[in-house]
């Protein structure tokens, strides 16, 4: 149905809940119930399209009844499948805002023109978000990876989507 790069994984189907086809939902969204803002869902590598008939909070988690899943056996068959959506379902961002997925693969260059490498991934820490930058093969400072704080206007000076470059105030020796 779609290319994997055109989809975003928002969660995973958990264990069956009850006998009427309900399943537990493990969500990767910032706000746990935010996963229900999107429809349809694409399940597993085949991207089988499903809609959520009902959902509710249960204890400290979420459970949902999906279309076409009407008993415990069917719920067991979709257990552990990823829940994805089409990237086009994400809301449009304001100027100067970026989805992390848009930053992965961009070149990171410091304010003196030194190419630090490319963004491998981003992740959250307690204090701030961090970019994991894979250093270039011939890095003059012998670095393989760098952890660079994602702090706009302090460390991150500019993000140019057209040239796929992130300009940073960062010493290449770190």
Please tag this protein with its features.
174 residues, six-stranded mixed β-sheet, seven-stranded antiparallel β-sheet, Elongation Factor Tu (Ef-tu), domain 3, mainly beta, 2 helices, SH3 type barrels, 2 domains
Order of helices and strands: EEEEEEHEHEEEEEE
- Which CATH class of the largest domain? Mainly Beta
Q: Superfamily at the CATH H level of the largest domain?
A: RimM
Please give the CATH architecture of the largest domain: Beta Barrel
Instruction: Examine the coordinates and then state which fold CATH places here, giving the name of the CATH topology of the largest domain.
Output: Elongation Factor Tu (Ef-tu), domain 3
| β-strand amount | 35-45%
Task: Characterize the largest beta sheet: strand count, sense, and whether it forms a barrel.
Answer: 7 strands, antiparallel
Report the span from N to C terminus.
44 Å
Give the % helix. under 10%
How many discrete structural domains? 2
Q: Describe the global form.
A: elongated
Provide a compact summary of the structure.
The protein has two helices and 13 strands; from the N terminus they run ββββββαβαββββββ. By secondary structure, the protein is mainly beta.
Give an overview of the whole structure.
With 174 residues, the protein is mainly beta. The protein folds into two domains: 4-89, Elongation Factor Tu (Ef-tu), domain 3 (Beta Barrel), CATH 2.40.30; 100-168, PRC-barrel domain (SH3 type barrels, Roll). The chain has helices at residues 72-77, 100-103, and strands at residues 7-17, 22-27, 41-43, 48-50, 52-58, 61-66, 82-86, 107-110, 115-124, 129-134, 145-149, 156-160, 165-168. The strands form two sheets. Strands 4-3-7-1-2-6-5 form a seven-stranded antiparallel sheet. The protein starts with 6 loop residues before the first strand and ends in a 6-residue tail after the last strand. It is found in: Cytoplasm. Keywords: Chaperone, Cytoplasm, Ribosome biogenesis, rRNA processing. Belongs to the RimM family.
